[in-house]
Amino acid sequence: MNRVVVNYLLCFCAGSIFSLGAIAAINQASWLPVTLFGNRELAAVFRVVSPAIVAFTALVLLAFYWDSAARLASRVLGTGTPTQRSGPNAADRGLRSQREVTAVRDELERQLGRLIVLIASQLKNSTDHVASLKDTNAHLATVTDVTEIRDVVQSLIEKNETNERQTRDLEQRLKEAQDQASVLKQRLSQAEKLASLDPLTSVANRRRFEQFIADEVQRSHQLGTPLCLIMTDIDHFKKVNDRYGHSAGDSVLKAFAELLSRSVRGGDLVARYGGEEFAVVLPQTPMGDAFGIAERIRCTFERNGGVDEAVVNDLGRMTASFGVAEIREGEPPSELVRRADQMLYEAKHSGRNTTMIWSSATSPSEHV
Question: Are 266 and 210 within one domain?
Fold first, then answer.
């Protein structure tokens, strides 16, 4: 046990016993009131009110020690809530990753600033050295005395040596700064990657999804290439959490995310859109191919629960619903997401375990 806690408990016990014992002795000793007040009538009054004094003093002691004990426990055990002590949640980890990105980026900017200062210093030294050489050359043209020529040459040698030392020192500092900048670039890349991933499933998070689909929609409009979006949701996922617990639910989400990732190309993006809903962005993919991808994922998940056989063995048959939409000319990303999400909604209300696609500009079409 913590030594501070032990010492506090010992002091608490000793102080309480001494205080209450002294009060009890005062209450029980009939001779003390007589000695203090000089008459038995006043002593009798004292004996009547002394229990109230004892009770009041005991309450004061209890309140004092209770408050002190609470402060001690708060200092020793920490003041966080049980949820906070149990470990950081996904939002906390996301915020820490984003703070790490900001911190590394700021440090990289400072390091690049040092590089600029070093380069400017090197340029200044070179300029000063060239100017010095010009002055020396002009001076030599006017010198006729041998001794003076020797002094000028010696001065020139010393200046060259000084310039060489400064150059070597600047080169070393420049190399160190470049090495540090290289390390910071790697850290920034790693931090940005972590900040763009969902902590549980390791696929892209909502923030990364929004950046990616905005870029791909713009590229699709510029190049005239197809672009499809799949929105998918695990059917009856809440029952998994309610019946088997959140740990089982996390296993299902991880397995489903891995299945999605393994079912698409390297240039596609799988993202956790929120809760048990995922998004799959398919650049340069027409509707027919996107529908085929969604159907293969749906059938695989229904058959074996994804890539984790333990999930389907423990939880039984699971299914997912899919909504697919293809980009329209001039359409913003938000509208593409809305239409794909609407198809997912239709799939949920058409019996689930279904793929719904927006087959034309005006009406959706269902495929099972």
Answer: yes
Q: In whole angstroms, give the CA distance from residue 205 to residue 176.
A: 36
Q: Which amino acid is at 78?
A: G
**Per-residue pLDDT tens digits for 190-242:** 666 768 899 899 999 999 999 999 999 999 999 999 999 999 999 999 988 88
Same domain flag for 121 and 151: yes
Active site residues: 276
Total structural domains in the chain? 3
Owning domain of residue 169: 90-195
Supply φ then ψ for residue 96, to 5 degrees.
Answer: -65, -40
Residue 281 has pLDDT above 80, yes or no: yes
Query: Of 195, 224, 245, which closes a domain?
Result: 195
Q: Specify if 201 maps to a domain.
A: no
In a domain, 305, yes or no: yes
Lowest mean pLDDT among 118-122, 173-177, 180-184, 339-343: 118-122
